[in-house]
Write a structure and sequence with these properties.
Three copies of one chain form a homotrimer. Chain A has 260 residues and is α/β, with parallel strands linked by helices. Chain A has a single domain, classed as 3-Layer(aba) Sandwich (UDP-N-acetylmuramoyl-L-alanine:D-glutamate ligase), CATH 3.40.1190.20. Chain A is built from eleven helices and eight strands. In chain A, strands 2-1-3-4-5-6-7-8 form an eight-stranded mixed β-sheet, with helices on both faces. In chain A, α2 crosses α8. Chain A is globular, with a radius of gyration of 17 Å. Chains A and B meet through α2, α3 and α10 of A and α5 and α10 of B.
């Protein structure tokens, strides 16, 4: 008898659909150490998906917040003294308590200090590094390609997700390419930052971090496609995007997901 | 002749309807020492209701801003060194000039340092402490019940408003229960923070702080019910909520208000 | 033969229409040192118009961000120690690299420290000072009138734009009055701040700063008029405003522009 292998990663759309239900059922707490531009939108994205966000950047209390959270996001979008101090405490707490944490090294290609700080953080064991191609090139000192991403992931024992028209996700062994999303997503500030926060939430309800990341990216991209249908521009799109996340149905996720 | 007592607090819906007009006519200045997540939404809520928001957190100038304001909100949502210093100056200025100030001790149940700071602030005489049941329990070290709230209000000579499906407001002698609002309000970040800012504005145009607080909660809850009618999710709800506040009519407030 | 002079500034509507295309084609990078209330809305306004915003306020890296930008906005809306330090570096970098920078001295009428700091900044050569009449009066120590504005512009070798129902723009020699806009613009927080950021972008794609400023104000006002058409209140207006900016057509700009 001749059998046909299923296409690679054909189980990811179902996981993405399940993930949406898991987030609503378990309501994970996600602490976001993120930039001032992104805080409000990120909190609303997490709330729409059923999660509970917290946002303090104060060194004195961030340990308590992270210690009580199910996932942590560290986003370098506004890199200042206060956030840098808080990052050290937040990451130490997450590591000690085995709380998954995601590094989103925003604009690491714009200033060398930021790149140096990001490299130091990669060394502290984020479960996921999520960035765009220009940021990957600055961090890894080589252009983003499936091979470069997989090698970086392997070398740093992290999942790496590089966003673009097609998102690439690798843990060094597996690579998935996700083609969902919409051009309007690049016209809304903090869209990527909020995506990283949602993936952090996914990492708290799925034990395989590569699969959790791919599923989170699928959810995010599908919500973007649904939102674009009735949008008149980037602001009505952003409103529709959050609404779509809050009402996302398994059927739509499975039908629209594009992953290879 | 037999007379029937009016139901308790039957005059509050009318006050709430009046309040909306008073805010538009007097345009009170409300200084908000609030968290970074809430600043933009809070400012837009105040503007929609006819008020003039200011938001600086700088110690050097907050005294001037509070001194020229009609009400002050102190929200602990992002508790950092800079905001803590500014709080001392803001509260001292408000006390000295008899400017009503509201304490919103966000997430006081999450970190002991925050609870300690909030207790210190309660001792400095806010006209209103506004919080949810978990925050009340952390602050008062007992569960929120009508009796506990009334006793806490009496002991601290402040009005206390505990938010939830039904909001409870007490000044130690009177208790009102307000059943307005909509579940989508809990899905929009900073909704509660913005509500506290609106109540601060109400306190500047009504001399009985218990009545002002109840009226502000009624206004806020009614706007939420009106906004939910056409909303597709939390983001279109948030847009409709601000629009509803800006166009709220006395008739709708009186018709929808649910207070006992 | 008798010829008729064209009305003054009759070429500005066409420039405004062109400007919209230039921004989309050249995608200028605009660094915004702005207040926490305005950051998100400002970034979304710039993205809608085709620009690339950055927002860091960290002294350590702002030099790199400004050095790589095409324009700089300095907005004093939340005036704190960190932003003040960053301002010095940002302005020095802009001056050294001939990057146009705009000063928006928000609320300079509310606190004397802020006015003093703003005066110091005016002395450092912003290409444009953009403010409202109350702020002008505080800064210039005389009421805003066409003559006062022109004299201030001449004395400080900057373009001065004073916003109001009619915006006035002068470089000391020329004065334009722009009557576009809509009352709902004053009901959305950070609308003015975002306008200053958009004008900063215009200054990077048009070498005559007075004309660039007038064109930016026209674009902004026309987008406001278009957005108001279907708005139910300030929040749906703000959404429609960003959508309108992203789809603004030359024909509408030329048809609606009101400049004398």
């Amino acid at each position: 008898m001749h059998t046909v292998d299923p296409p690679p990663h054909s189980d990811l759309p179902q996981l993405a659909a399940d993930m949406s239900g898991r987030l609503r059922a378990r309501r994970p707490r996600v602490h976001c150490l993120t930039n001032a531009v992104a805080q409000n939108f990120t909190a609303n994205v997490l709330l729409a998906a059923g999660c509970v966000p917290s946002m303090t950047i104060s060194s004195e209390e961030i340990g308590h917040f992270v210690g009580g959270a199910n996932a942590l996001l560290v986003n370098l979008g506004t890199f200042d003294q206060e956030r840098r101090e808080a990052t050290g405490i937040a990451v130490a707490t997450a590591s000690q308590k085995n709380i998954p944490w995601v590094l989103d090294p925003v604009f690491v290609d714009r200033a060398p200090q930021r790149a140096a700080f990001a490299r130091e953080l990669v060394g502290r064991g984020p479960i996921l590094v999520r960035l765009n191609a220009a940021e990957f090139a600055a961090l890894a000192e080589r252009p983003a390609s499936p091979q470069a991403i997989a090698e970086y992931a392997l070398a740093h024992k992290s999942v790496v997700a590089v966003s673009g028209e097609t998102d690439l996700v690798s843990d060094g062994k597996r690579v998935a390419a996700i083609a969902n999303g919409h051009p309007l997503m690049a016209r809304v500030t903090a869209m990527g930052c909020a995506g990283s926060a949602l993936i952090a939430a996914c990492l708290s309800v799925e034990s395989d971090p590569w699969r959790a990341t791919a599923a989170g990216l699928l959810l995010f991209g599908v919500a973007g496609e649904l939102a674009a249908r009735g949008a008149n521009g980037p602001a009505s799109f952003a409103v529709a995007f959050i609404d779509a996340l809050s009402t996302l149905e398994a059927g739509a996720v499975i039908q629209l997901a594009q992953v290879t």
